[in-house]
Design goal:
Elements: H1 3-18, E1 22-23, E2 30-34, E3 37-39, E4 44-45, E5 48-52, E6 55-57, E7 60-61, E8 65-69, E9 72-74, E10 77-78, E11 82-84, E12 89-91, E13 96-97, E14 101-103, E15 109-110, E16 115-116, E17 120-122, H2 126-158, H3 160-172, H4 174-195, H5 202-231, H6 239-252, H7 258-279, H8 281-297
Parallel strand pairs: 2-5, 3-6, 4-7, 5-8, 6-9, 7-10, 8-11, 9-12, 10-13, 11-14, 12-15, 13-16, 14-17
Antiparallel strand pairs: 1-2
Length: 301
């Protein structure tokens, strides 16, 4: 993969962040960061680019197919080239690729009756692939950081009493906060699986999963606020502690494995603090009184 191709792919990733799963009205191109791409039998698509997720082609693709981390299954026809990075291409019986097939990790599986018009070749430019993966990871990190920053500013700015109460609860009942957070964090997906076990419950399970995403985001930014508040104990304002806490969490997120574990723990802890604060009016009252006292004392300091 040359430098020009790498730049083009990064631009595609940028476009996909701005318009996820977008499609051109004329060519029906599809660019997906996380999800799936399906071209059913009888339908036609243009170029297909996906960063994380499976691709299934039973219809006709007039352009190229590029998949970073996702299985590609072809039973239909692809007029252009097919490139896979981390997962394997499976060309089923009757599937056709008129161009080249390139792979970086796992060699494609070609069934009898399938055909490849061009060459099957292994990508040797590991440097280029590493740079592309790094660029996509950085874009994803920046997107999550920006979203958390906006959500946190709104949470701290418009619900100061709620975040103060959550911080008080976390300070006074750390063990209960962890327990409550774990129950909420793992309870929602478990409940979704149980509800989705029946055909009737599938829509409700989907709604639970969708509702969990913004709830988890609130837990994460609440933890950032609590962390910053514990570090900057002498600060009376709310935004600086939040920014400090968020910066620490987002820097840790750059560390493989550890970043994911810390993110899960922070989300669960924030959920527990918010949940307990909602259930304990006395703690909420403590937060209200503290905020009112600070508002009176600050001008006199």
């Amino acid at each position: 993969m040359g430098g020009r191709a790498l730049i083009a792919l990064v631009l595609v990733a940028l476009a996909a962040l701005v318009i996820p799963a977008a499609a051109s009205a004329e060519r029906k191109d599809q660019y997906v960061i996380s999800g799936s791409i399906d071209v059913p039998k009888g339908e036609t698509a243009g170029d297909l680019v996906i960063v994380d997720g499976p691709v299934r082609i039973d219809g006709h693709v007039t352009g190229d197919v590029f998949a970073v981390a996702g299985k590609v299954t072809i039973k239909g026809r692809v007029d252009g080239d097919v490139t896979t990075i981390a997962e394997r291409l499976r060309l089923r019986e009757g599937g056709r690729v008129r161009g080249d097939v390139s792979y970086a990790d796992k060699k494609p599986v070609v069934a009898p009756g399938a055909s490849i018009g061009g060459k099957v070749k292994k990508i040797k430019n590991k440097v280029g692939l590493g740079a592309f993966a790094w660029a996509v990871g950085l874009l994803f990190w920046l997107g999550v950081t920006g979203s958390a920053l906006i959500l946190g500013i709104l949470l701290v700015g418009f619900t100061p009493r709620a975040v103060e109460s959550a911080a008080e609860v976390a300070d006074r009942s750390t063990g209960a906060t962890i327990g409550m957070g774990a129950a909420i964090f793992f309870g929602i997906p478990i409940l979704a699986v149980l509800v989705g076990a029946t055909v009737i419950g599938i829509p409700l399970a989907a709604l639970l999963v969708l509702a969990a995403l913004p709830l988890y985001a609130l837990g994460y930014v609440a933890s950032a606020w609590i962390l910053g508040r514990r570090i900057l104990t002498g600060r009376r304002d709310r935004f600086v502690p939040f920014l400090v806490g968020l910066l620490i969490l987002r820097l840790i997120a750059l560390i493989p494995v550890l970043g994911a574990l810390v993110g899960i723990c922070a989300t669960a802890f924030g959920l527990g603090a918010l949940g307990l604060a909602e259930q304990r009016p006395q703690d909420h009252a403590i937060g209200v009184r503290r905020a009112e006292v600070e508002a009176i004392v600050e001008p006199l300091a």
